[in-house]
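step 4 of 6: structure.
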Amino acid sequence: MTVSSPSQASNMTPESPELQKRDPASAQRAGKLVVLTGASGGIGLLVARRLLADGYRVIALCRSKPALESPDLVHVACDLGNEGSLAEAAHHLRREETVLHALIHCAGTITPSPVAEAQDDDLTAQIALNLTAPILLTRHLLPLLTSRGDGARGHIVFVNSMAAVMPLAGSAVYAASKAGLRSFALSLAQELRRSCITVSTVFPGAVQTDMLIREMQQGGSMLNYVSTPLDPDRVARSVAAQLRRPHAEIYLPAMDGIFGRLCMLAPCLLRLTLPVLGAAGRRGYRKAMAKISRTGDDRAV
Ligand SMILES: NC(=O)c1ccc[n+]([C@@H]2O[C@H](COP(=O)([O-])OP(=O)(O)OC[C@H]3O[C@@H](n4cnc5c(N)ncnc54)[C@H](OP(=O)(O)O)[C@@H]3O)[C@@H](O)[C@H]2O)c1
């Protein structure tokens, strides 16, 4: 495990003039510590940027160093898909007697493939990163959230996916891992009901990041294009907002979330709704591809 942090980080206190220059609300948040997984990726990097701008200090748990220079960002290199690496990083944070304000789970992965053709390693890697890692990390770091003793609320935020409430043929294990994560978050919220910790989940539909580009190159679902893929900054804004105004569940776009949950009230109706959604998705995908060939910008997917 490697821990890298700019040398000034340890000198940064809530009273630092640099932090006091920020707006008053920011100054109140100054010095509060957030552990963020997936901080080097499309959504996570933007969440990290927002948190830093809001005056938080961020510990980034991911394999590669986030492309962000800030004295308030510490990178703890960690392979969350490896239980040993995860336990070592968590042990490091606990040994430091870190007091946490929030834990945000954003790391995730998808490897589309019909189950019959999938490789065992790809299936277990998706479950390890999307489901096992957030469960283990929550358990390891919960004492750092509960031991704050300042009476203020602490937060756990999960970045999930619309796939948690909508079956995704060709990505069944991804969908199952995200559905399991939803169930974990709702159960955890019940357990922590009487504590000062809130539990929130953000469920985005498709988002314009490298993950979506890779997914579509590997034969991802056309359902990703039923709505126009989201701007990752919109998702990041919603994730960061959970530390100020927590909600148990936020779906982006909201209408897609309502539709997905209605479908799951009577899954037998999926045989009627999915062909319609599939056709809309194929239309949306063709439009996105046409835009790429016009603009040459593959971020347009
Ligand atoms: N993009 C979408 O269309 C979409 C839609 C719905 C939900 N989501 C969810 O949003 C979250 C973020 O997605 P994204 O689009 O930002 O993905 P991304 O750009 O591919 O970034 C993924 C992040 O996860 C980290 N990660 C991957 N494998 C890891 C491992 N073994 N150990 C530690 N960290 C690992 C990566 O960091 P390193 O590689 O540096 O380790 C990176 O920071 C995921 O949970 C995803 O399921 C995405």
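step 5 of 6: annotate
 - Residues 3-300 form a domain with the Rossmann fold fold (CATH 3.40.50.720).
 - Residues 6-22 have pLDDT under 50 and may be disordered.
step 6 of 6: archive
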